[in-house]
Structures are given as structure tokens and as C-alpha cells.
Amino acid sequence: MANASEKPALKVLLCSPRGFCAGVVRAIESVERALAIYGAPVYVRHEIVHNRYVVDSLRAKGAIFVEELDEVPDTGAPVIFSAHGVPLAVPEDAARRNLFALNATCPLVTKVHREVEIHHRRGRQIVLIGHAGHPEVIGTMGQLPASAVTLIETVEDADNFTPRDANNLAYVTQTTLSVDDTAAIVGRLKARFPGIAGPHVKDICYATTNRQEAVKRVAPVVDAMIVVGSPNSSNTQRLKEVALHAGCARAALVQRAADIDWNEYKDIARLGITAGASAPEVLVEEILDAFAQHYAISVETVSAAEEGVFFPLPRPLRENQAAE
Ligand code: SF4
After folding, report:
1. pLDDT band at residue 6 under the 50/70/90 scheme
2. Which residues share a beta bridge with 125?
3. Does any ligand 1 atom lie closer than 6 A to the CB of residue 235?
4. How confident is residue 226, by pLDDT bands cut at 50, 70 and 90?
5. CA atoms of 304 and 212, how far apart (whole Å)
6. Is 241 a known active-site residue?
7. What percent of the chain has pLDDT over 90?
8. Is the pLDDT of residue 1 over 70?
9. Nearest CA to ligand 1 atom 7
10. Angle 50-53-57 (CA atoms, 0-180°, nearest 5)?
11. What is the rounded average pLDDT of the residues 163-173?
12. How many Å apart are CA 228 and CA 240, to the nearest integer?
């Protein structure tokens, strides 16, 4: 290994905030608390958060991940629903089977579920802006009968959408979308349907918004951006897109240091690093350590917002905690 003086210099701009949000912390702690209180196994429907490292760590502690409830045997063990939320049919099914269900849905996703319920009760047709197939979208659409919610993914979809009654419409969004892309879609819907009802507080969550804002500051002034996180994480994918839109020539998702293609970083002088809301800080440190092996790095943090959000654990886990 070359000594430090022989390594090329690399300035690393570290985005802040990055990594875990309050909803992810709550979801992971829910599984850890359940394991501590009730012992293994604890069943988890879907990846608790979209990060392989987190899922593998919890699996090693006794969590069993399933995609659907019918993979869970009749058991007294806890069954935890992931941070992304679930269709109503899932807790109903769990109750029918007398399963001990714990809901780790992020409260900011639950807020969107309440919005669609209220719009539906008021007789409005609902447009959900989001990505088809994402578990949060499946969960939000699954709060209501199938025809009540129409999914829109693009500005073109907004142009082509034909409502049943143009004067009785509402929209909600997935929590982890691109702020700018969503503004364009909402703008088009409002231009076509001026009376469309929307959320009082934006549905795109604080964590998604702040992480994108930090990337917008860093991406234009670096040669490449690394977004630490998993490809199935929506907010992580959006960070990569935001970096490219903000003018960074290269942006890559990286799950672990071993995944880094060093040829991509041969000729850079400035590197931006961020992490999706489900990526633990230990993976950022692992990637920084890997760069320190190849470069004489100097690290500067670029901060776009301070975060102090905290969500309490689901009630049964809180009550057990208090009893200890
Ligand atoms: S990204 Fe936002 S909505 Fe998703 S878990 Fe985190 S805080 Fe909740």
C-alpha cells in the first residue's frame, strides 16, 4: 500500500442530513425491541426497511422475513408490518388469524393513509402520485376499494388522466418521491383541475426533502456522487436522479465498499457522498475508509437542514419498555 503522501488528494463533500430517518429508526427498533421482549422468532412482513445490511443483521438476531402473511405459521410470535405500510386487508387477515401484529408503518405514511380515507369519505376520486409496484403505493391504494384511487407516475399520465368528475378530485403522493418531479406533476394536475384538493402539509416527507436538498447543494460542485443504499429503496433512487439533474456528471448507488468500481473514480478530485434514509451510517464509514485506502481524503460536511424528528415505538413495545 502506498503511503499517504503518494496518494492523490480527494476532497469528499458529505451531505447532511443523510441516512436513517425517524421512520426507519422506529421500524428497526421495533424489530429489535420485539426480539428483546418476546424472543426469536419475530416475523416481519416485507423487508422492514429497504436495506440488505439491515435485513441481514436482523435476520441474524432471529427475525424471519416473509413477503405475505400466509407464509407465517399460526403462532403467538409477533408479526411486524414494515415501515412502508400495508393494505387494509393485511391487518384484517392478521386479526382473523389471531396473530400478534405490530405495525411499524412510518407515521408519515399513515398520515397519507388517513388523507385517502378522508377524501374517499367526502366522495372524491383520488389521484395517487407514485411508483407502480412500490410497497408504499400498494399499501396506500389498499386502504380503499380498487377503483377509488388512480395511480399517476408522470406528467404525461397527468395529461392523459380522465376523471369521473373533474370537480370532485383530490391528490396525495408517495412520501419518497423527487420533490421537483412531483411539483411538475402536481402543477399539471392543478392546471387541468383547479379545484383539486391536496394535502395541507406536503406528503413527501421531511427526510426525503432534506436529503434531496443536501444533494442539490453538493452535486453541482463535485466530479462524482455516491449514494449509499439499496436499489429497491425509492428515496435512495431519487437521490441518484437528483444528483444527475443537479448537474453531476456521474452518480452511482453503492451498497457496500466491495461494490465500488474503482475505474469510475480514477480521475476525480471532488466526491460527494450521501445515503438513503434506510442506509446505516456504518456503511458510509465503510465507504469513506475504502476511499481513504486509495486517496488522501479530506472530508467536509455540507448541511442543508437540522433534523430532530422522533417517532415513539408502536404501543405494545413502548408499554413493555416502560414496565422494565
Ligand atoms: S423516508 Fe420518510 S416516510 Fe419513509 S420511513 Fe423515513 S420519514 Fe417515514
Report:
1. confident
2. 169
3. yes
4. very high
5. 9
6. no
7. 95
8. no
9. 23
10. 110
11. 96
12. 10
The per-residue pLDDT for 319 is: 75
Cβ neighbour number for residue 104 with a 10 Å cutoff: 28
The DSSP annotation for 32-53 comes to HHHHHHH-S-EEEES-SSS-HH
Q: Kindly state if the Cβ of 317 falls inside 6 Å of ligand 1.
A: no
Alpha-carbon 142 to chain mean position: 19
The predicted model scores a pTM of 0.95
Length of the chain: 324
Which residue intervals of 142-273 are DSSP H helices? Answer: 155-160, 179-192, 206-218, 234-245
Pocket-testing residue among 134, 235, 310, ligand 1, by greatest number of atoms within 8 A of Cβ: 235
Report CA 103 to chain centroid distance, whole Å: 17
3-state secondary structure of 81: strand
Q: What is the dihedral of CA 87, 89, 93, 94, to 10 degrees?
A: 30
Rounded Cα–Cα distance for residues 184 and 189 (Å):
9
* Strand pairing report for 125-129 and 149-152: parallel
Which one of the listed residues 29, 47, 136, 241 is annotated catalytic?
136
